[in-house]
């Protein structure tokens, strides 16, 4: 079974990626800039707790020609508030950068939804949230899941409570190496409270460690 960067591709692409991996040092995958990611996100929601809630990202990976919307459902463990639990959901589709919303299925185009249980930790506003156990294929809208695999995602970064933004990088043990992923909190578990217009600060992700593993 092919495993490719926390995303799904055809077997042929997977073989090519494995061949290239033997000769190239992994680098961060090219994709949407931070400002481009922000522009695609809904209005933020302000909640009582600065960390728990539903967080969403929207990113384009140029190398894979794939759009991905991640959703994090983050809760605190009742008897250990620095420990987090919840789910990671991935909705992805193959398309050009002109299709930030899923286009109609066409030929061998792929569109899928994956979810996985998640654990995490919170030290002040420094947060890690990563997939654990077994990922699940929730839906295949286009294409087929035959011959595909998935690397569990691992997000780490800092939450800015002023703008309800989780400025993170993703390291999935594959091609996602310090891949900038900007999440905005879009819903509180007790109900949304939109903040309105905000002016986000610049986001400078850490440099790649070069090895591809967290």
What general form does the structure show?
globular
Using the CA coordinates, give the radius of gyration: 17 Å
Using the coordinates shown, work out and report the CATH topology: Lipocalin
What is the share of helical residues? under 10%
Strand order of the largest sheet: 1-3-4-5-6-8-9-10
Number of domain units: 1
Number of helices: 2
Written description of the protein model:
There is one protein chain. The protein is mainly β and 214 residues long. The protein has a single domain, classed as Lipocalin. Helices cover 8% and strands 38% of the residues. It contains two helices and ten strands. It has helices at 11-21, 34-39; strands at residues 53-56, 59-61, 66-77, 80-94, 111-123, 126-131, 136-142, 154-160, 165-170, 179-187. A hairpin with a 2-residue loop joins strand 5 and strand 6 (126-131). The radius of gyration is 17 Å and the shape is globular. It starts with 10 loop residues before the first helix and ends in a 27-residue tail after the last strand.
Write the layout of secondary structure elements.
Blueprint: H1 11-21, H2 34-39, E1 53-56, E2 59-61, E3 66-77, E4 80-94, E5 111-123, E6 126-131, E7 136-142, E8 154-160, E9 165-170, E10 179-187
Antiparallel strand pairs: 1-3, 1-10, 2-3, 3-4, 4-5, 5-6, 5-7, 6-8, 8-9, 9-10
């Amino acid at each position: 079974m092919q495993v490719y960067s926390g995303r799904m591709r055809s077997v042929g692409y997977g073989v090519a990626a494995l061949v290239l991996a033997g000769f190239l040092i992994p680098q961060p995958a090219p994709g949407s800039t931070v400002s481009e990611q922000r522009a695609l996100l809904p209005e933020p929601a302000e909640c009582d707790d600065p960390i728990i809630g539903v967080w969403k990202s929207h990113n384009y990976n140029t190398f894979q020609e794939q759009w991905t919307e991640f959703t994090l459902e983050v809760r605190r463990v009742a008897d250990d508030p620095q420990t987090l639990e919840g789910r990671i959901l991935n909705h992805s589709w193959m398309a050009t950068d002109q299709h930030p919303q899923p286009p109609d299925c066409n030929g061998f185009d792929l569109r899928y939804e994956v979810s996985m249980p998640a654990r995490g930790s919170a030290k002040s506003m420094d947060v890690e949230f990563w997939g654990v156990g077994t990922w699940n294929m929730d839906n295949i809208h286009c294409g087929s899941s035959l011959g595909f695999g998935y690397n569990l995602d691992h997000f780490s970064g800092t939450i800015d409570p002023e703008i309800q933004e989780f400025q993170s990088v993703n390291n999935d043990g594959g091609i996602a190496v310090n891949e900038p992923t900007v999440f905005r909190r879009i819903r509180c578990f007790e109900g949304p409270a939109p903040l309105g217009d905000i002016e986000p600060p610049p986001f400078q992700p850490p440099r790649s460690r070069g090895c591809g593993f967290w």
